[in-house]
Amino acid sequence: MSIKRVRPGKRFSAAVVHDNTVYVAGTVALDPSADVKGQTGQILKRIDEVLAEAGSHKSKVLSANVYMADITKWEEMNSAWDAWVDPNNMPVRATIECKLANPKYQVEIMMIAAL
Fold this sequence. Notes:
This protein has helices at residues 36-54, 74-84, and strands at 3-8, 13-18, 21-27, 61-68, 92-97, 107-114. By secondary structure, it is of the alpha+beta class.
């Protein structure tokens, strides 16, 4: 069984494809000066690109973990999420409040998708 690494970097790959499953790394915004909605939108756009490169699509997302520095901004994150997610193919999702690796990031999202 082959393993495909998408955008491998110094510490991790943006995604790894194995056995018809795409594992997308925790993804953050490229412009962390944006608000929560803006960061979430940026993240989801980046994930769209990685999924496409891996041969998948948001309609095939199985699971998502959303990490937030401040859970009280949950509605802001959800407004970007709701505009992005395929309403006919809802994944399972968990939203967790936690301290992120860099305080300038307010949201980080990790996903698993089918090919």
